[in-house]
């Protein structure tokens, strides 16, 4: 690929992508370095998951295992979970508290502090003067691989890139405004669910940005006669194109949203009626009319508020056709028991068993299966136009944010993809 | 160790066997009938239970909500076509008080999709409370605590 073509690629907008991007192991490997370990901030977890000194949780950046730790001075650190001696996994638990702040590799007991710095090596001088490391051995050169860590409103991100701009700039003002909305007061974690899809991570990333499929794939609302067409929706993109947020609000002057369930059953003509309307009950708790907020932050997290469910969905890549979605559900720290129970009831709507969303897992797998052996064939992403706009509104019948994803992705991938991978409007 | 009343043991084991077969035969509409009206059914990750976290992937605190699940499954939800197969251990009766019996049983749900391969889909244990009336048991609450944290694709059919 010559440099002229590459400049062209960065300026124009993709409208069709070669299906091989979901299958090719070389592309997957290039994504690990250009996207996940490249010039991005990857979501690692929530501050609320590690509130106390010594608290840790394991996480991932793409396929790379990392550990997130809160140090003694309340600072959060992240390092690759790979011993600097022989590469063994250092931290073997999913989460916990390391009261003394030391992480010791079980294999030869190299010890690291919470920052990931090597602080102890057994028999460094050998035994009875025999063996041991050379006197030039400097533990400072054998620490765990450390990430830069920054957090915004309790969402922790890490980057491998030393020249990466500040997290706030990477997120940009539009994305920050919506993160502020969800994290307007302290939260508490309610639990986890993990979903393992036999599909490429980009299929899920497209899915969470795809406002076209909502009313077509997810048939829960129409099945129970709940018509959502009367509601206002809007979408906004960050400057790079690859972050987006989609919201649905009740229209001004319409019935009170708390009677959503009642409205549903009044409009119901067919035989199917919701037996327990508490499932859908919505108690507005943020100072606006938004009942659905889905925000995709490139490259690896979705932040959501759907009714009274709050969650992050972290994308972990386990191979070209294996993607894990880690759902972290939360509520607000001041929720009483009854409010928590209400959130649990609403949680039926989302997650791996979500009544309004479980289909996404199936859609990812169908696209993965359907594109086997389809190298040189292209998808078609021209719903709503062939450009990328910062704002889109009309009921989301638009693949604007999907094109935005590819625009940002392609800029990061650069030369790693051949020029024929993408088609653009003439 | 005390030996549970063989009658109670029989009632609980019979319910569990019928419950598994009902789901495996695809008789989903009959499934809510294993529960009393004011019931609780939840499917929750063991990692949440062990950490005192309440979030469940299914949380139905009325029989109506179970019915809603079944209707959604039949008419709304899209998921891989599959068969389920429940293997349920003999229950351990953990307590009884008047008409109420508590018990736990291990389960494994195997799943077979259109490719024909049978996979271990979800393994865990039932933590149950039963109401015994007129010689039959009904579930007041069933908590499916699953070890299989990594849910394959999605979880549509009740466990
Ligand atoms: S591999 Fe970790 S100490 Fe040897
Ligand atoms: Fe969806």
Automatic annotation (TrEMBL), chain A:
- Molecular function via GO: 2 iron, 2 sulfur cluster binding; iron ion binding; oxidoreductase activity
Q: Does the keyword DNA damage apply?
A: no
Where in this chain does the record put each Rieske domain?
42-158
Record SUPFAM superfamilies: Bet v1-like (SSF55961), ISP domain (SSF50022)
The UniProt entry, under Pfam families, shows:
Rieske, Ring_hydroxyl_A
Instruction: Report the superkingdom from the record.
Output: Bacteria
Q: Tell whether tRNA processing is among the UniProt keywords.
A: no
Supply the alphabetized keyword list.
2Fe-2S, Iron, Iron-sulfur, Metal-binding, Oxidoreductase
* Recorded family membership: Belongs to the bacterial ring-hydroxylating dioxygenase alpha subunit family.
Q: Which PANTHER family match?
A: 3-PHENYLPROPIONATE_CINNAMIC ACID DIOXYGENASE SUBUNIT ALPHA (PTHR43756:SF1), CHOLINE MONOOXYGENASE, CHLOROPLASTIC (PTHR43756)
For this entry, the protein name equals Rieske (2Fe-2S) protein
Q: Which organism is it from?
A: Sphingopyxis bauzanensis
UniProtKB/TrEMBL annotation, chain B:
Name of the molecule in the record: Anthranilate 1,2-dioxygenase
For this chain, the family text in UniProt reads:
Belongs to the bacterial ring-hydroxylating dioxygenase beta subunit family.
Q: Which UniProt keywords apply?
A: Dioxygenase, Oxidoreductase
Q: Which GO terms describe its molecular function?
A: dioxygenase activity
Query: Species name for this entry?
Result: Sphingopyxis bauzanensis
Task: Supply the Pfam families for this chain.
Answer: Ring_hydroxyl_B
């Amino acid at each position: 690929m010559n440099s002229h073509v590459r400049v062209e690629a960065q300026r124009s907008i993709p409208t069709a992508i070669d299906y091989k991007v979901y299958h090719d192991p070389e592309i997957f490997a290039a994504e690990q370095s250009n996207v996940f370990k490249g010039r991005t901030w990857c979501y690692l977890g929530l501050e609320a998951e590690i509130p106390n000194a010594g608290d840790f949780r394991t996480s991932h950046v793409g396929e790379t295992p990392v550990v997130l730790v809160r140090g003694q001075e309340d600072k959060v650190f992240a390092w690759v979970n790979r011993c600097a001696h022989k590469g063994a996994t250092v931290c073997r638990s999913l989460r916990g508290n390391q009261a003394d702040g030391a992480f010791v590799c079980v294999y030869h007991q190299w010890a690291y502090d919470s920052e990931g710095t090597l602080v102890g090596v057994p028999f460094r001088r050998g035994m009875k003067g025999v063996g041991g490391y050379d006197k030039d051995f400097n533990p400072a050169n054998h620490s765990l691989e450390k990430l830069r860590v920054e957090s915004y409103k309790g969402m922790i991100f890490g980057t491998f890139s030393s020249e990466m701009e500040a997290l706030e700039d990477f997120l940009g003002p539009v994305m920050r405004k919506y993160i502020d909305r969800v994290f307007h007061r302290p939260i508490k974690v309610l639990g986890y669910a993990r979903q393992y899809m036999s599909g490429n991570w980009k299929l899920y990333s497209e899915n969470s940005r795809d406002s076209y499929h909502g009313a077509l794939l997810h048939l829960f609302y129409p099945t129970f006669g709940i018509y959502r067409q009367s509601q206002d929706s809007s979408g906004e993109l960050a400057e790079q194109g690859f972050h987006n947020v989609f919201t649905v609000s009740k229209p001004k002057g319409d019935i009170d949203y708390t009677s959503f369930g009642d409205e549903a059953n009044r409009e119901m003509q067919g035989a199917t009626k919701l037996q327990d309307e508490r499932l859908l009950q919505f108690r507005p708790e943020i100072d606006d009319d938004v009942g659905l907020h889905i925000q995709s932050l490139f490259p690896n997290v979705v932040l959501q508020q759907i009714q009274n469910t709050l969650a992050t969905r972290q994308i972990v890549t386990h191979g070209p056709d294996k993607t894990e979605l880690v759902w972290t559900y939360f509520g607000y720290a001041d929720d009483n028991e009854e409010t928590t129970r209400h959130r649990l009831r609403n949680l039926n709507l989302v997650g791996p068993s979500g009544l309004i969303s479980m289909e996404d897992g199936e859609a990812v797998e169908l696209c993965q299966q359907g594109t086997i052996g389809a190298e040189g064939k292209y998808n078609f992403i021209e719903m709503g136009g062939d450009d990328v706009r910062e704002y889109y509104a009309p009921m989301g019948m638009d693949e604007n944010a999907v094109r935005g994803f590819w625009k940002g992705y392609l800029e990061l991938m650069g030369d790693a993809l051949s020029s024929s991978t993408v088609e653009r409007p003439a | 160790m005390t030996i549970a009343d063989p009658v109670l043991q029989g009632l609980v084991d019979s319910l569990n066997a019928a419950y598994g077969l009902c789901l495996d035969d695809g008789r989903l509409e009959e499934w809510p009938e294993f529960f009393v009206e004011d019931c609780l059914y939840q499917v929750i990750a063991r990692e949440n239970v062990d950490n005192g976290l309440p979030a469940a992937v299914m949380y139905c605190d009325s029989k109506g909500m179970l019915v809603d699940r079944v209707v959604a499954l039949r008419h709304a939800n899209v998921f891989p076509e599959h068969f389920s197969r429940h293997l349920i251990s003999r229950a351990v009766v953990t307590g009884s008080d008047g008409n109420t019996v508590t018990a736990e049983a291990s389960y494994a749900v195997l799943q077979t999709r259109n490719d024909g391969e049978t996979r271990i889909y979800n393994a865990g244990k039932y933590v149950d409370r039963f109401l015994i009336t007129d010689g039959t048991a009904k579930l007041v609450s069933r908590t499916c605590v699953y070890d299989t944290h990594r849910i394959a694709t999605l979880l549509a059919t009740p466990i």
